Structures are given as structure tokens and as C-alpha cells.
Amino acid sequence: MRKGRAFWQGVEIALFLFFSLIKLIIEKMLAKIKEKLKIVSSFFRARELSEQAALVATILAFVSILAVFLLVINFVLPKTRVEVRVSGPEKAKCGEEIIYTVTYKNTGNVILEQPELTFHHPTFSLPEKTLVETKSLGNYFYPKEEKTFEFKTRLFGAKGEKREVKTWLTYSTERKKAPAMTEVVAFSTLISETPIDLILDIPAKIPISPKTETEFIFRIKYLSLIEPAISNLKLVVNFPSDFKFKESKPARTEKQNWQIAKLEKLESGELEISGTFPREEKLDKELDFMGQLLINLQGEDVLLKEVTTRSITYEPIFLLTQKINGQEKYSPYPGEKLHYQIYFKNIQDKPLRDLVLTTVLEGNIYDIFTIETPSGKFKMGDNSISWDGEDIPQLRYLLPGEQGEAEFWVRLKDDYKPKDLTETNVLIKNRVILAGFEAEFRNQVNSKITISQEGYFRDKYGFFENSGQHPPQVNETTYYTIVWKFGNYYNRVEDVKIKAALPDEVHFNAVKTTHGEVKVIRKAEVESLYPEIPTGFKFEKPLYQEMNGDDVKYLQIILKSEVSYLYPENVGASGHFGPTTLKSVKGFQLKYKEEILDPQNLKEPTGYVDELTRLKLNELLIKGIPSGPTEVVWEIGEVDPGIGVLEDPWIATFQIAFTPQAAQRGKEAILIHDVTASAKDRWTGMFVNSNNEFIDTTLPDDPTVRGEGKIR
Known about the structure:
Layout: H1 2-46, H2 51-76, E1 82-87, E2 91-93, E3 97-106, E4 112-120, E5 125-127, E6 132-136, E7 140-141, E8 146-155, E9 162-172, E10 180-181, E11 185-193, E12 196-201, E13 205-207, E14 214-224, E15 230-238, E16 244-249, E17 257-263, E18 268-277, E19 286-297, E20 300-314, E21 318-324, E22 337-346, E23 352-353, E24 357-362, E25 366-372, E26 377-379, E27 384-387, H3 393-396, E28 397-398, E29 403-412, E30 427-434, E31 437-444, E32 449-456, E33 478-488, E34 493-502, E35 506-513, E36 517-522, H4 550-562, H5 579-591, H6 593-596, H7 611-623, E37 630-639, E38 650-658, E39 670-672, E40 675-681, E41 687-692, E42 695-696
Parallel strand pairs: 2-11, 13-20
Antiparallel strand pairs: 1-3, 3-8, 4-6, 4-7, 4-9, 5-8, 9-10, 9-11, 12-14, 14-18, 15-17, 15-19, 16-18, 19-20, 21-22, 22-29, 23-28, 24-27, 24-30, 25-29, 26-27, 30-31, 32-33, 33-38, 34-37, 34-40, 35-38, 36-37, 39-42, 40-41
């Protein structure tokens, strides 16, 4: 206490001495000023001026002296001053290209030598050039001179974060050669949105078995709306500590981290993680999951998006599973007919009575008017199908360990057009509800690609000037325009190729295209491998056991050649899909496993002639058809969803020259054979294809020729 009091007493004495000294200095200054004023006043009185006039004159004299002093300071003495202004968007989307404008003005009266501007882009940005840019303003920066510069960059980070730019100017002067620097000027931009969808596909309730380990699969999905593409991405997934990781698709690069090399605009992806919960896992326990998408910039991981979800464990009464067309994981094609089989099993120790099973279909691509349910009841409006004990006996009384089945059929729309980009990466979903318990099943739908082929003598698009006569004449050349239009509905596709063969009398002349590259490949003519199958025939519908018809007959002809060790010589092509045909189809699928089974993640053949099996069969048919010496191939690469639906189709057009032979006189001639398009769906990993018919000299797309196409 004594030490504290002594301290404050010392402070009081010091303050008293300080203010006393200040007072003394002020009093002396005032005395000197008063003395000087008396001298000036005496000077004016000596010249017989009044006291008031002398005072005014004295004041004017001081004002004049002050004005001269200020004039010298501002206009005579050298002054260095630079005005700096930075402008740019106050808000910007993550990944969006923005422009900052920097203006420098020399507001002093000194010439600045070797001026150099430094602009520091925000941390965690992708500038057009380098993170720190320098620009010379020339050898000299003159007074009143002004210069403006623009800097482009893309900001990255989570919504709500700020990014700051900084700029300054270094220079020297004639008097001071050592470099000087202006003040650092800063400008901040707020990240208003991160246009990336990140979804944790995890149910609100997780079924747990108290007796055994419980297998559990969850997914995290992502979709980028950032343009252009972004690279060096990483997915980080945090799951409960008692969840035992087993495997993931794709495989992880390090513990709980998954690398994404590149993500294009509208490109999506899915990470599937499988593992187990221990049998002692508690019921009604809250489980937290988190997913993060990060980008690596300047050697650091920057968070772009984060999503969390919480689930609760419960003990299920039923085991609910489902198959579509005989497969648990099935990716259907638009227009395909789907056979749903829903299985329910009592996993409790006591029987269950008077159950009602309901499934609800969700997805605009379902054609609900094609629903077939022999025993169930379909309800229009909520798109639900229900079964009770009168429809399925097991729903009336289900013993412990007993399993029942419900089934229905529905077709997907063949030409459903997405309304906007939110309807890309298409899923079909159905919820299965039984006695208050619910399970949701999701299946990815393959994209629909389209290819159209048009032919013109009088080119309505103006791509080429065609010459010659139409109808064409023997031994005289006529030029035609062929137009291909490619569209892609739902998902991003890659490795897109469009092909068509030209007859012997037709030659490729010139090409124009908006995307990709058109090539001309010359091939040797081949003979048909299957003369019993009509030229131009294609497998276009699914085939399965107990079917009958020509499609089955032609299938058997190919199987006898491709898997003869499974199809006995004494068994003919009857057109009936029996056990021998089933066994042979499975052998055919194993033979071409990489093209049929692997893309569908199937380990065993199904015997069901699905889309990929038909694609391979048609490929064998094409190999066996005389295709002529020339094939036109349009290679596009990758195509975004919505092309030809939400945007104009991509177009390739080329000019051909046709010189008819004498044997063709009086007949219509083919100018180009059927065109086929193929691609790989990035969303499903499956192959998709489309085709359009040949064009002959009748030119159905050209109204000016009126269908006249017989050679003269």
C-alpha cells in the first residue's frame, strides 16, 4: 500500500512540474510577441497613424508574411504525393473471374523516376498471371499524370469469407535516389456463394443389429457449377469413430481423404464408402458425419464447401432389399422397361401379422401410365403402390426368418427433356414402407444421346455450294451436304464418337464442324459373317428366357458362331429362348466380360440380353456387313448435359460427291449409311449409344427436291 501511494505522489509532482514549465514558456512567448507588436505599433504612430490603423496594418503584415510562406511551401518547395485508388466487386462467387482496377495519379510537383507498381492478389486465389504482379509506369511519372491497370483473378474459399488485395508504388526522385514507397492500399471482396453442391447421402435412421456386426454403406455426392474447370481438389470425410472402414469406390488416397484431379463445370461424382458398426453399438445413439471439399492453393488446403448430418441408430424389424431387372445395382436407360422385385424379411423372433407394404416412386422420368402391378394397388397422385395380406400371403402372417416378395413393372420415359440443369445427373428413387419402417433405394439413370442425319442438295444452312444435277445422272458428279446433329440429355458423357460409312460411288469432299474433329477412314470391304441375318437388322429390345421370335432366332445364329462350345451343332436356331440359349448367352457375356459385365460391376453373367449385350451383338453384325471403302468418324470427346435440349445441338457438316454407275440407272441410291453415336456416361460409368437411318437420293429433309431421287 505504501509503495502504491508513493508512486502516485511521484506522478502528481511530475505533472505539476510539467504544466508549470509549459505555462512559463507560453508566458515568455506572449511577452515577446507583445514587445514586437509595440515596436511595430510605434513605427506606425511615428508616421502619425491612429492606434486602430496601426493594429490593422500590423495584422495585415503578418497575414501577408504567412501567405508568402504558404505559397513557398506549396508551389516552390518540392512536394512528393501519389493518389492510389483500387476498385473491384465487393461481392463475388467462388471461382468466378473478377477484375480489379488500380489507378495511380501523381498529385505532387516532383517527377517520379523508375516508378513500379506492385499488386498482390488475394491469398487463396488463382490470378491470370502470378500471385504478385509488378508493372512499370515507364521511366518517369510526371505531375498530374494518371495511369490505370487491370488485374484478373478468381477467388476461392467458403461462403462468407473475405479476400483482400494490396497495392503500392515504389519510385525514386532526382534528389533522392534511394527507392521510396507509397502507403499500401487494400481492397476486400466477400465470397457471396460457393457454386458447388455437396450432399451426404445418409438416412436419418441407421438400422443396427444387436447380435451381429452391421454393414453400412453411405455416399457423398458432388456437382460443380464453377467455370472453367478447377483442379487439385480433395474430399475429406469424417465418420463416427466406431464405424469400421472397409472399402470405398473410388479408393482413398490417404486416411479419410480422396483426391479429385479435375472437376469440369456441371461435372459430378460420387464417393461410396462401406464399412461396419460393431454388434455392441448402442440403439438411439446419435452419429455425426461430415464431408468437406477442399482445393489446394499455394501449398495449403482451402475449404470450399462443408456439409454435416446426424443420424440415429435403431433396431429394425425387417430386412428390406430390392432388385431391378434381376440386379441390386442397376442403371437403366431412358425408355427401358423395369422389373422391380421388393423383398421383405422378418428378422425378429416373433411372427408379424396384417402388414401393408407400400412403395412410392419419385422421379419425373418415370412413365407412371405404364405401371403394371398384377397384385398391388396403384394410386395416381402420390405414385404409390400398396400390397396387403389379400395380395401377398406373407403380409398376412410373416414367420420369424420368413421372406416375402412384391413385384411390379414400369417403363422410363424415352424422351423426357430436362427443364434446367438441376435435372441433370438423373436418379430414380423409390421409398419402401412397411409397418412404419422405411428404406430408400436410388438408381442412377444413363444419359440419352441423340444423333440425327440430314441430307441436302440445296443446302438450307448455307454451309456449302453444291453443284451438279439432281436427280443425279450416270457418270456425272453431284455434290450434297450431310448434316449431323448431336445431343446429350442428362449426364456428362465422354469418348463421344459418331460414325457412318459411305458407299463406293460416294467420296468425301469437305468438312465444317463446331466441335471436335471429323476424320475419314478408309477400310477394306468385308463379306457378311451371318448371311442368314437380314442386312440392316439390329437388336433393339431386351431378350430373356421363354421369349420367342426372329430376334431370338438371330441371337441363336450368332451364339452358334461365338460360343459354339456351349451351343450344340444338333440344336438349331428355333427362335425359342430356352435353357441352351440362356447358357450360351451367359457364355457370350463372359467371353466379352470387359465390354458387358465390367462396366456394370457384375461378377457373374445374367443371361439377360441387356443394353450392353445388344451393343456387342450389333457390333458383330456391323463387322459382318459390307460397309464400303470409306467411313466418316466425328470425334467430339466430352459433352455437357443439356446439349440439344437446353442449348443448341453440336453440329458437324460435310460435303460428299456422288457419281452414279450405269447399273444404278432408274434406281434410288444410298448416299450415306446409318449413322451411330456412342459414348461413356461419366455419371453411371455405362456406355450409351444412338443411331439414325441412312440417307438416299430422295433426300427427305430437302423440300426442294420433292422426293425425286431415281438416277437418270
